[in-house]
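hey so i finally got around to running the thing on that chain from the lab meeting. sorry it took forever, my laptop kept dying and i had to restart like 3 times. anyway pasting the input first so we r on the same page abt which one it is
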Amino acid sequence: MVFLSTRIQDNEVWIRFCAPLFFSVFLLVISGCESTIQQGDVVLSSPNRTEVAKEALISFHVPSGMSVTRHISIRSRLEQTISDIRVKASCGCTLAELSQDFLEPGDFANLICTIDGTTSPQKRNVSVRLFSADLKDYAFDIGLTFESGKEFSDYGIDVEPTAFIINEGWDEKNSYSASVKLSRGKKVPFGGLSCSSDSPGTKTTILKDSILLEITKPTLGRIDGNVEVSYSLGKDCYKRKIPVICLLRSGGDSSEN
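ok and heres what got predicted. didnt touch it at all, straight out
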């Protein structure tokens, strides 16, 4: 049987779990992170006590078709060093990793959580578990709550068409490019966007209301990949991936087969 007691004092919430043979500490978090908590967003105090700064309560709002990444500060007040820390999220729509795989007493580390709004349901609770052989019969679970959908379009980035498409005959003297129309939500900072391409031999430029993709080293055949557009707001990084679909045909033939 598990007993739970909660005490609110100053800017912290204290949560105590007690169990006969197994300790599992759940950090339930329900509001956005907009400021850095110097003493740690989440403090691992002991096997049966965990402190959570109220400002660190963790809830994500994910626009449709985008992902959101947040760094959550973890501090250890345990008396022992924890090594070979492993991290596991309870669903495939969440990627979680720790900035280092050990925590000495007093150490800080960043828990980096990414929620993928392209694969996630509209609302979900996710548990991210930190565990290690050094912890023996207990582990730490951090609870995330997120919602995704069109209702968060104020944070969204949309493009039309939804991919960079180039389908032309190849000529070494020619230059090749494609563009997509860009629209952004009301809360997306103007001038705060950045973009990059993982497609070889390409270059991207953000214009006022569009994104331009240029083939800097045109070669015969296909060029595939993604252009990633991103911006930061508070402790969150919002990202959208735009596919690159490029085919340069031999003999100047631009017709489709």
